[in-house]
């Protein structure tokens, strides 16, 4: 049977020749450079000890400098499996997850149409890049400037702009002779269901071209400039060119950069990848608005053996990381792993790099944890294991998860790692008490049954509940930045809450210094200028006293910068409501810190498994207090007093001591 002209190209794009050849050879690590698709091995076609067999993964060919064998993936399968051409095609098609085509003369037409759509996409990329220089794109350029994107970076990533017009791109492509049907098929225009005239899909958006591993433009991602747009980010729809579950943003350049670093970072979005690249971390990719798929994970492993998943430091980011675990477990094999880098709460890589610099990001990536640690956290976090039944249930869940790993060796090492983590949680020993005589006194077990440590176990401290106090630093930075930015944008609000600002103490030292500078500037502002003076704003006085622009510093965090209620043009009542709410939450959190410190002092060095439980109860009490402040609008003092009373009751009751039966 004859094959459509594009069928073999599709197989070659989905299955790398290095993946096919690797089943028969072992790569020479000294000569090979996987990041550049450059592989060397002893030739499988003749006996030799040196690595003279070369595979160029980008071009899809192999060549032996000894016996001069050469060809592509199909010829390699034919020669090594001793099969015919069509059978080799079927083998590779199955590996690529493709159906063998029926005897359909229309298939050739579809393949030709696909090639034409690729040309349409290149025209669209050129159009959008030209539009970024237009007068209509001035707000888009200003936005990119605020985000710190240099002109060189814009050129490197081919950043463009789609005008806020229903037919701007359509008109351009029509002038180039592209029929409307092809524009719609490429995902660049939408044809109404009622059969009306098509219109541009992307309007008033910053445009990010998406290219496949071979560098061919296949889709767009568009970031809306209108804050009221239904979708902040909009991707191209599924087209004959674009399968979002099989593509990764920046995959081609990241693969080349990975050849030098040996690493791969998987971020959440376009701006994260671009910020990482601009900071010198060019080996970064991102899924395209969806959870990571099996095909994307396989593509990552073709680039690097141990990609680092770096997701946003919020509940959604953690949930996404946990979903990757279930996807990856059945695919694990020796030498193919994942590590996880969870960002500080409320920050993404773009925010962190602009706020703390590239070194801070590199340090986080270097500290990424193996997947087994995140699996353990998922199964233990927020749970109490104070009975044999609960511990047995934990064992069952972990066994079921580990059983998904197909490689026996990897599975065995996972069991060993879990045993170590389990021992840390259930059988921690204090060295100074390990040799004490067997006794049970007021302080708990000694000797034969080891006493538990005063401080929480490492596993407990690594959980989100155990980290509640430490995570407050990230949440506190958001709260404190929002309070300060609202006050600087609205001097009247600052005057209203001046007394609260004077008595509160911020957790972040740098922001506490800015709070004091704000109070000093507020007094000077009131004495000399009066509110609303066009000559000297409150922010300008703070800048004169501190030597830096406070608005720029406070706007580095996206959640603060994008809050419409504290922006300069927002109603003062909205800004005041935000400040009062954030101050209430801040007082509750700082109050719980003080109480926890006093609780630890009250414990006096005696603790057992109840310590972990008490930490969980304290964290839950804090969360209830914060929710109450929002949902029921209680007075700040009432919430704080209720929380203190609850903690004092726990202390008075000595919940950490074992009770006699």
TrEMBL record:
Keywords: DNA replication, DNA-binding, DNA-directed RNA polymerase, Magnesium, Metal-binding, Nucleotidyltransferase, Primosome, Transcription, Transferase, Zinc, Zinc-finger
The keyword Repressor appears for this protein: no
Details of cofactor binding: Binds 1 zinc ion per monomer.
GO CC terms: cytoplasm; DNA-directed RNA polymerase complex; primosome complex
Catalysis: reaction(s): ssDNA + n NTP = ssDNA/pppN(pN)n-1 hybrid + (n-1) diphosphate
Domain spans labelled Toprim: 262-343
InterPro entries in the record: DNA_primase_core_N_sf (IPR037068), DNA_primase_DnaG (IPR006295), DNA_primase_Znf_CHC2 (IPR036977), DnaG_bac (IPR030846), DNAG_N (IPR013264), DnaG_primase (IPR050219), TOPRIM_DnaG_bac (IPR034151), TOPRIM_dom (IPR006171)
UniProt-recorded name of the protein: DNA primase
